[in-house]
Amino acid sequence: MKSSGLWKGCTVLLSIVSIALLIAVTVLTIQLKELVAESARGKTQQEETKVVSTYKSPTTPTKSVFDTLTEEEIIEIRNFMFNQPELNLVPIDQATVSSNYIYLIESVLPSKKDVLEHLDSDHTLPVRSARVTCFMGEKTTPRVEEFLVFPIPKVSGYTRYINPVQRPGPIPWNSRPDTDPETNEIDKRLVGPVMLTLYPVLKATYGYWYHNCTDRCIFFVYAAKGLVAGDRQMYVRGFRAKLDGYYLWPMSLALLVNCNGNDPSKFKLTKLYYEENSFHTAQELLIAYNNGSIKKRVYGYPPTGPTYGSPDLRGEREANWKKLPKQTEPDGRRFTVDGQKVKYLDWEFNFRLRAVTGLQVMDMRYKDERIAYEVSMADIIVLYSGKEPEGLQANLHDASWSIGARHRPLLRGYDCPDNALYFNNTFFDSGTGTAQVFHDALCLFEHNTALPISRHTSVNFYGSDNPKYLYKYNMPGSVMILRGIPTLWNYDYIFDFVFHPNGVMETRVAATGYVQPWNWSPGEAESPYGNFINREFGILANLHHHLFNFKFDLDIRGQLNRFETWDITLENRTNPLAPGKRWYQTKMNRTLRKTEKEALVSYIFEEPKYYVICNQKAYNSVGYPKGYRIFSNSFSKQLLPEGWQAENGFSWSRYQVAVTKFKDNEDTTASLYGQAEPYCPVRKFEKFYSDNENIVDRDLVAWVSLGLQHIPVMEDIPVTTTPGKQLSVVLAPLNYFDEDPTLTSQDAIVIRPED
Ligand SMILES: [Cu+2]
């Protein structure tokens, strides 16, 4: 009996254990499936960017003067240009440095006058045209030429495109961005042979080399610059390949190549840089290395598997991990889209992506009145520091790599929320010589910020009995966001154009992506140029200054506006309640800025002020001119001496706010040619204001510069984070309305206690 009871007991126990194990296995299997599904989600969503059809208007979109070029139009323009025998253009894959080939095709807006006549006076749709930028290497004096091609579609003619803002004469050959026909020649004639000569040094120093390298390859990054005006030098910098975050694995190995002219046989090595030493030739380096006159450094291999540059999850995923919260739109979307035109509550605007400079909003209206003709991203610069030539001279002009064309597919549900609409980026790709489409490159969504636009609880201070409050008021903060994220080599810039319900529009940019480190002596303890992220490999994350320029072409109740600063100063006056006592306080003084030079404003901490664009002929009910205020808490002093060499290439950064008279030719501060020729730039902002025109009651454009000093630290590894790195400019109505315009919003709530 006893043994039978024991047996029964064991059976029951085993059964319980088996059931428990079965439950545990089932639960684990379900969790594992979820984890696998989650980890696969990234991949699935990547694929989605290719296969999911993007937004299409429910009907054929209305043609707009702001439409950018379609794939078919780009190809039509390209083929038209190929058919002009006098241009003798060849496809990029057949081109050499001494060929004529197309670099860029982008739409050009008609003059503002024509556009406004069309929009406001029902004139017919102005003729659309495009600018075609060609590298004319075949000429005896090679040059860059820009052509205006028209009409679109059904192209039938072209003329030379002359922009009087740009420096006179042809666009200098040395100022062009680098392209494959040139870099391939440099690789074949110089980089390859030099690296072959240096093979023993490279192998001994890095364990990485250039030829037949399989898993231990050096790859080179090219950037066209010059040492002085008119010069063209290619900076060629070595990195360890096939590593996540390869930006974080630079080598102290660079070539400077003189590539002036159009004859690659005359390209020559200016200098070779290796582990803090400069040489004229590879042979010179080899001799110095072999005779021991330079230090023989030996770096190990990066660890196998994920390195510090890898973004893969560290550690185990928590078993009880739960999904992120999501927003919902209970009654569906509150905006409509027709082509590139958006209507959202009281807002209406057109958006477009310009190849060189990126995001633009045109004809921006609030409550049926135009507030701005244009709000655009204008230029991006990053000024690096460092001991090495690359860090020292790396003043990067992102527009020279076409900011707009770098708007790649967004990751659905991550880069933009689930409720977003997506739009494609269609552009001419200089690398392949044809139209390229990046799906889902822009997104548009409404977003509840959870920060009320306004709220108040009115407390009953004049009665001791109930009710304790008189009313509660809340206007929720929900905004429309237009987002695009260009990836420019290492950095990703998240651009948001934000439309608040109270007539406030905001442009924001947040920096993320990889920081770009350079090298520093591995044995040294400290560096004035940043923080080590990898001492063993002598890799230093260098300090740098991000600078952004935005364009605000405000048209407040028409084009004729003026620019005032409302200066806040200190006064010391008698207190009427205590005669004989003095009292300090602030006061405001409206200062009319009459000319373009008076309208160059550098931010000074001791001189707080409002920046105001207003219309002196349109008043609100109190009698104040209707205006908009430009506000930013993201100003940053650009420290380089004014007019010093490369500083000429981004002279807009001298001023935090500059207001100039509108000119069609002064469409942006950036230039394709800024990187290669910053010293005597093709386009110089100084020219916008040097004629010092009268700006009182004129059509005005405000150029606003923001900046971010960045001293990278270990937490910038692997990918630098956005909190604290988002900059913004706010356009806010200023005496434009008679009261807060959201008082008409049905989103608001007023609660009064019942009697
Ligand atoms: Cu940075």
Automatic annotation (TrEMBL):
PTM description: Topaquinone (TPQ) is generated by copper-dependent autoxidation of a specific tyrosyl residue.
InterPro entries named among the record's database cross-references: Cu_Am_ox_TPQ-bd, Cu_amine_oxidase, Cu_amine_oxidase_C, Cu_amine_oxidase_C_sf, Cu_amine_oxidase_N-reg, Cu_amine_oxidase_N2
EC numbers for this chain: 1.4.3.-
Domain of life according to the entry: Eukaryota
Record-stated family: Belongs to the copper/topaquinone oxidase family.
Domain Copper amine oxidase catalytic: 326-743
Record Gene3D superfamilies: 3.10.450.40, Copper amine oxidase, catalytic domain
Transmembrane annotation, as ranges: 12-32
Active site positions: D398 (proton acceptor), Y491 (schiff-base intermediate with substrate)
Lineage: Eukaryota, Metazoa, Spiralia, Lophotrochozoa, Brachiopoda
Keywords for this protein: Copper, Membrane, Metal-binding, Oxidoreductase, TPQ, Transmembrane, Transmembrane helix
One GO CC annotation: plasma membrane
Name recorded for this polypeptide: Amine oxidase
Keyword Transmembrane helix attributed: yes
Entries under Pfam families matching the protein: Cu_amine_oxid (PF01179), Cu_amine_oxidN2 (PF02727)
